[in-house]
Structures are given as structure tokens and as C-alpha cells.
Amino acid sequence: MTVQVAAGLLVRGATVLACQRPADQPHPGKWEFPGGKREAGETLAECLRRELREELGIEAEIGSIIWRTRHTYPGREPVALTFFAVPAFRGVLRNRVFAATRWVEITELVQLDFLEADRELIALLSRGGLSLA
């Protein structure tokens, strides 16, 4: 069975929000974009809206799909990731679950130790191969 995951690219100027996984989660210390697993009966956009509310305390406007990929981590179910643009949100962003959150210049994302499933997207973004607008 494939796990469906929605992730959000929150943009502020030339920066995007990166989140570091906590020590008590799989892949501790790795960086990722906020989001999570789709629950039964949810669309991927609804999933992302819920996850951003739970993880960051915001009400997000979910934009267009930026990128889709599949990845299988050793000993885990395959993951189908859908990355959405998040052009705006309401509320004050509060880190509720991550070890750290950081606004990072898009060209500097490659310097963070991101999850393997995110690396192709990050390479494209850093080369200007994808637009978040």
C-alpha cells in the first residue's frame, strides 16, 4: 500500500519554510517541508490544510501542485508525495511539532540535510527549474 502525503511550500519573498524533524520521529534531524499523511475521506489539499493547522497553527490557502514524486525508504511503505504551493496563510506561524523551523533562501535549501524524497524537488528549485509563484 502506498502512503499518500501532502506537503506545502510556504513562500515569503525569496524564502521558503523548512522544518526539522524532531529526535523522537523517524529520520530525526532531517529537514522537510511541512505536511503529512492523508487520512481517509480527505483530499490532498484538505490534508495539507489540516496538517498546517496542526503543525504550525495557521489557516493556509492551498495553491497549485508544484511537484509529485514517489519514494520508498528502507523497511517502509512506498510514499507518494504531492507538493503544493501555499501562497498565503492567516494566523501567526507557531512551531508546534518540529525541532526547528527556518525561512531559507530557495537557492540555499541544498545546504540543509533534507529527506531523500525531497531532494529532487530541492535541486530543481535551487536551479530555478520550478517556479513557486
Average of the residue pLDDT scores: 94
Number of strands: 9
CATH A-level architecture: Alpha-Beta Complex
**Beta-strand percent range:** 35-45%
N-end to C-end Cα span: 33 Å
Give the low-pLDDT segments.
none
Let me know the largest β-sheet: 7 strands, mixed
The H-and-E topology, N to C, reads as: EEEEHEEEEEH
Residues in helix, %: 10-25%
Provide the structure class: alpha+beta
Supply Rg: 14 Å
Q: What top-tier CATH class fits best?
A: Alpha Beta
Say what the CATH topology is: Nucleoside Triphosphate Pyrophosphohydrolase
Number of domains: 1
Write the layout of secondary structure elements.
Blueprint: E1 3-12, E2 15-20, E3 31-32, E4 35-37, H1 44-56, E5 59-61, E6 65-71, E7 79-86, E8 88-90, E9 100-105, H2 119-126
Parallel strand pairs: 1-7
Antiparallel strand pairs: 1-2, 1-4, 2-3, 2-9, 5-8, 6-7
Characterise this structure.
- This protein is α+β, with helices and mostly antiparallel strands and 133 residues long.
- The protein has a single domain (3-126), classed as Nucleoside Triphosphate Pyrophosphohydrolase, CATH 3.90.79.
- It has two helices and nine strands.
- The strands form two sheets. Strands 1, 2, 3, 4, 6, 7 and 9 form a seven-stranded mixed beta sheet that branches.
- The longest helix has 13 residues, at 44-56.
- It starts with a strand and ends in a 7-residue tail after the last helix.
